[in-house]
Amino acid sequence: MNLLDPQGPVAAANSTILVDSVFIMLAIVVPTIFAILAFAFWFRASNTKARFQPGFVYSGRVEMVVWAIPALTVILLGGVAWIGSHQLDPAAPVPGTGSPVRIQAVSLDWKWLFIYPDQRIATVNTLTVPAGAELNFQLTSSSVMNTFFIPQLGSMIYTMNGMVTRLNLRADNEGKLKGMSAHFSGDGFPDMMFDVNVISPLSFPDWVATTAKTDAVLNEESYKKLMQQGIEKGKPTYRLEDPRLFNLIATQHIPPGPGPELMSDAGRPHSGGHDAR
Amino acid sequence: MPAAPTVEAMMLGKLDWSAIPFDQPIPLIAGGVVLAGILAVLIWVVVKGHLPYLWHEWITSVDHKRIGVMYILLASMMLLRGGSDAIMMRIQQAIAYQSQGYLPPEHYNQIFSAHGTIMIFFVAMPFVIGLMNLIVPLQLGVRDVAFPTLNSVGFWLTATGALLVNLSLVIGEFARTGWLAFPPLSELSYSPGVGVDYYAWSLQISGVGTLVAGINLVTTVLKLRTKGMNYLRMPMFCWTTLASNLLIVAAFPILTATLAMLLLDRYLGFHFFTNEAGGNVMMFMNLIWAWGHPEVYILVLPAFGIFSEVVSTFSGKALFGYRSMVLATMAICVISFMVWLHHFFTMGAGPDVNAIFGIASMIIAVPTGVKIYNWLFTMYGGRIRFATPMLWAVGFMVTFIIGGLTGVLVAVPPADFMLHNSMFLVAHFHNVIIGGVLFGAFAGFEYWFPKAFGFRLDERWGKLAFWFTFSGFYITFVPLYVAGMLGMTRRMQHYDVAEWRPWMIVAAIGMAVLSIGVICQIMQLVVSIRNREALRDRTGDPWDGRSLEWATSSPPPVFNFAFHPDVRGEDAYWDMKIAAQQQSLEHEEPEYHDIEMPRNSPTGFVCAFFATIMGFALIWHIWWLVILGSLGAFATFVVFAWRDHDEYVIPAAEVAAIDRVNLEERRNLVSMAGAI
User: Fold this and answer.
1) What is the pTM of this model?
2) Annotated domain spans of chain A
3) B103 vs B101: CA distance, rounded Å
């Protein structure tokens, strides 16, 4: 999951900016650290060769330089930030080969649901995408906040209930990647890691066809079952009954997922209080 | 809603025996040990007859020095608690590869939430506020802070917050939401337990304490300065105190309002931040960070002040570029309010918004960089003595630059799109908070300890503590930077990614080294107390200091100065020493006057006692006790407001007796220096 081993153009651009920024800053940070250690060593009290200059407490030239160095660095980096923010706006499309794939991601407690509205299928905790195609994400949450993040594809984005965020990515190479939630969302949070299978664009239709053959159907009813708090160990796949399911979730026509089940009266772990409802 | 409340529910609210975690050995044993420790100390105090002394000299004291010492004591105790949490987390992440480790999620999640809350609110805040309380009036050459009794109230309310957080260890639970309790996770539907209530009420109560401390210190710096101490003659620490407390006064009400809204959601069914009924979590994010970002500068600015004093004193030079430093401090103070959005670049704002806040965040690096260079040039041409405080200062400069680099890096939105919430971020803010605030607190502790207690700290143990902490810091947090670059996100109770594992193990080893540093620090205190006669500071000026706190004895008399010092320039005390060496050493006996000092008052303690009751009752929905607690706190305030005598007089003869001893020691010092 090395950030410096990008598998798509967004991650590549992100990590280039990351590395460039570090080097721009190292250019002044390294000499400064060196100067701190050198001055501290040379001007030690026991060094008789060092000249004691108690009157050296102001110098217009030095002040000019010490304000200018960080200011120039920040101007340079500010340019990087401005251009980078615009080029890598998560909502901006990332052109690719073939037709774009629309994916609607929903963070549930505590699993990921990926809906492919055009293919009329849905998967849990596995994201399968064709290499090279533009991936067009719409994201929301069934309950609490989460962050959708595939480190080697780049740019993460929050998921929030009642709201839709947008993200565009592209995976360039076939292979297996890992994704995760990068925003703490409760007890099952560490189990929100998911597999990303990048397959060849030719085999993608086959995968869709195979997946669509499943008996499991995703509709409002089965979604409500799925959004109960819990960890999903398997990787179920569904036929999507209504391609508008995501809109029903995002617009809260399907109400937000419930919290923990209340078992006793005390305010302890796994339990709730009198007034919890 | 429950149908008809039972008698028990009316008497005890949600509280019953199931609130005590009998099934969880770790918090129960920890709580038991702490409780036994507190009981043992209490019994010892009572049996030995120290109770009247403690009550009259400390608990009811309104002396800024005593209150400062109590703040630092509170912070040190809480540092041990927060540090234990850190050790537990590092061990958990070192072993929880493809396994659940030894901490179940509901426990682990409480630990990281408590760790953050305690370290920021009950370690860093009281430590810096304690140092400011202790030193700022001395540096300004005055006898007390502007509002001495309010100062005591502020301290005790902070202690109330700390007490409530620790109570959650054994009665109920703490928040499992992270240290900022983001909704909707912190809303009643997803966190039905009392954890978030413990979190919110302890911060509400201690937040009041912090706010009054801020008001008090701002007023002190603005209104109480000795003659000749105009703004551009104030020591740097006073400037950073002013900036930091202005930020407290401006920012803490935002925190109070935000938590009040969350509490209204939880207690009265409001919908500020809920998923339902138009609540908006993004509003919480904006509000909490509108407080949260200034907060980090509230912490680090006083540390910058401490380092300015330390670097200048131990280099034997005035601070380089003093006016530039003042400008940089105030620039940081203002800009820190305009950057909060960089905490959530990944929430989907447009590129213009992200870029503007990214650039604004980087701009803070300019005045901060200027400060580093000015310290650097203060060392240039100096005669540097490497006493322990100076080691912390040099360690800080190196460490903080690296933290600054990674900070500016995450201020670049496209880089943050990969690093947000990662272990890299965790490493970054520990880099600046440990490397900046904690190193600063330790430097200030070592530097001003002789002033507070009249004897120096053992240098050998102090240096050991520095080297272990310094190296332990790098061994712990460099691996976290690497883990972040490998995609690891924060708050993972367990994980299945093999490449993260080795770094978590190294970080756990680093934590062990850091712990040795803390043990050395404790050893230093023990050894120094034992050797206090040998380490006695008779002159009041153990470091050849430059500002007015060194112009009085160690520890200073309750009135600080027999005469208000007359300040003629920056480095007031240094100038006095030079003048004294040049002029004849024989002084005429000055004419002493009576000094009026504020009387001690139990108001703070009693107020906090009732606030504790109120907070506890609110958390457990024990409404009659809430009413009792609030009435008690209000009554305490009314009684205080109707007091007749708030000052007492120290007669001139007593002032003279105390001051003559001090002057004698000081003359010996000056004549010895002259002889050399």
Assistant:
1) 0.91
2) 9-87, 101-257
3) 6
